[in-house]
Amino acid sequence: MPVAETAQTSARVRTGRAAPSGGPSAATPMPADFAALRRQDPELAGVLLAELDRQSSCLQLLAGENFTSAAVLAALGSPLANKYAEGYPGHRHHAGCELVDLAERLAVERATALFGAAHANVQPYSGSSAVLASYAALLVPGDTVLATALPHGGHLTHGSRANFSGRWFQFVGYGTDRDGLIDYDQVRDLARKHRPKAIVCGATAYPRHLDYAAFREIADDVGAYLIADAAHTLGLVAGGAAPSPVPYADVVCATTHKTLRGPRGGLILCGEPLAQRVDRAVYPFSQGGPHMHAIAAKAAAFAEAATPAFSEYAHQVVANARLLAEALCAEGLDVVTGGTDTHLITAGVGPLDIDGRTARGRCAAAGILVDKCPIPYDPRPADGCTGIRLGTAAVTTQGLGEREMPQVAGLIGRALREDRDTGADVAELVRRFPPYPDAYPGR
């Protein structure tokens, strides 16, 4: 079988997407009236086309990004973008919301069924907005919160002084041991010492599964709420490739992009006793009118995530990440915890005598996108950290599989060592796996 045909066939299996069933409209990532934008505003249309080219020509290893389906993009570009709908279905402050109510109800019903939650709020604009609303529902300014320390994989919303979290609440950070694994004894000791109002479990750069039962036990021991930040892993949960925090946490915050592969946005899941408090913390406390086009796109993504094809995709994401982590070790990188359970890998580049910023730049010059990040017990400050963070969600959507992961690791190693021919080989690889094969017909 020709190489191109092999790649296309395997892509349908790995991406969890069915083959297009119709003409261009079945596969294009933009509405059919894109031509109208080209006529009216060719300068902006050129920017959009250039961004499509950029996404199609890079090896996308940013752990927080993915490629949505054409159905999700269609919902984002729909007339629902025109509708003001402050409030919740059946209780809006504007007329004409009967149909957008249906869209939001669909999103809520699909989210609760997908994750086995009693209640879902699909209105948060982002993951950070979801965290803000969760804190607002359970805490008051000045309360103590125990969360992952930023140098050990925590997020800005876990107590950064530059963020609302660090300004409004008293955060205590827990960390990992020398092997890069969460020290649950330390979490328990800190909880008993500081008696936090809430404990946050979850991180932005931690590659292993969390022991949600252990966190629940610690929270119960000190009478704290348990908030799970599952921004990175909820898509894997949907696909059965990661444990769910829903049975253990009082509130679960997440994004709908990343591994869930939906539109950029946030999601909150909780039990019925906290439903009203969570809803009020989203609207009217922290947000105004919801983005109804984004909510419709979330509904489309939840429907996709409930399919067997998505489950296969989620498991392939993890298989790819594990193999990539192993291959990166062979390239001389210091992979934190020695591997991964998820889509996410953090690795030290100190053994190559460079820092994270330099590593990111060298990879970008070769068409490989990664993030710099701190790694546990890194003696350098955040701007000079010696870690990089990468993920396999997007490349798996494109159709790359276990056969390609050693090649990807080799390209990263060559880019870090400034092999001038790396960019051409990256371009050759990604050319075989376009994220939107039939985009913009007739451009």
TrEMBL record:
<keyword id="KW-0808">Transferase</keyword>
<keyword id="KW-0963">Cytoplasm</keyword>
<feature type="binding site">
    <location>
        <position position="150"/>
    </location>
    <ligand>
        <name>(6S)-5,6,7,8-tetrahydrofolate</name>
    </ligand>
</feature>
<comment type="function">
    <text>Catalyzes the reversible interconversion of serine and glycine with tetrahydrofolate (THF) serving as the one-carbon carrier. This reaction serves as the major source of one-carbon groups required for the biosynthesis of purines, thymidylate, methionine, and other important biomolecules. Also exhibits THF-independent aldolase activity toward beta-hydroxyamino acids, producing glycine and aldehydes, via a retro-aldol mechanism.</text>
</comment>
<comment type="pathway">
    <text>One-carbon metabolism; tetrahydrofolate interconversion.</text>
</comment>
<keyword id="KW-0028">Amino-acid biosynthesis</keyword>
<feature type="site" description="Plays an important role in substrate specificity">
    <location>
        <position position="257"/>
    </location>
</feature>
<dbReference type="InterPro" id="IPR015424">
    <property type="entry name" value="PyrdxlP-dep_Trfase"/>
</dbReference>
<dbReference type="Pfam" id="PF00464">
    <property type="entry name" value="SHMT"/>
</dbReference>
<feature type="compositionally biased region" description="Low complexity">
    <location>
        <begin position="18"/>
        <end position="30"/>
    </location>
</feature>
<dbReference type="InterPro" id="IPR015421">
    <property type="entry name" value="PyrdxlP-dep_Trfase_major"/>
</dbReference>
<comment type="subunit">
    <text>Homodimer.</text>
</comment>
<dbReference type="InterPro" id="IPR049943">
    <property type="entry name" value="Ser_HO-MeTrfase-like"/>
</dbReference>
<dbReference type="InterPro" id="IPR015422">
    <property type="entry name" value="PyrdxlP-dep_Trfase_small"/>
</dbReference>
<feature type="domain" description="Serine hydroxymethyltransferase-like">
    <location>
        <begin position="38"/>
        <end position="412"/>
    </location>
</feature>
<feature type="region of interest" description="Disordered">
    <location>
        <begin position="1"/>
        <end position="30"/>
    </location>
</feature>
<comment type="pathway">
    <text>Amino-acid biosynthesis; glycine biosynthesis; glycine from L-serine: step 1/1.</text>
</comment>
<feature type="binding site">
    <location>
        <begin position="154"/>
        <end position="156"/>
    </location>
    <ligand>
        <name>(6S)-5,6,7,8-tetrahydrofolate</name>
    </ligand>
</feature>
<dbReference type="InterPro" id="IPR039429">
    <property type="entry name" value="SHMT-like_dom"/>
</dbReference>
<keyword id="KW-0663">Pyridoxal phosphate</keyword>
<feature type="compositionally biased region" description="Polar residues">
    <location>
        <begin position="1"/>
        <end position="12"/>
    </location>
</feature>
<keyword id="KW-0554">One-carbon metabolism</keyword>
<comment type="similarity">
    <text>Belongs to the SHMT family.</text>
</comment>
<protein>
    <recommendedName>
        <fullName>Serine hydroxymethyltransferase</fullName>
        <ecNumber>2.1.2.1</ecNumber>
    </recommendedName>
</protein>
<feature type="modified residue" description="N6-(pyridoxal phosphate)lysine">
    <location>
        <position position="258"/>
    </location>
</feature>
<dbReference type="InterPro" id="IPR001085">
    <property type="entry name" value="Ser_HO-MeTrfase"/>
</dbReference>
<feature type="binding site">
    <location>
        <position position="272"/>
    </location>
    <ligand>
        <name>(6S)-5,6,7,8-tetrahydrofolate</name>
    </ligand>
</feature>
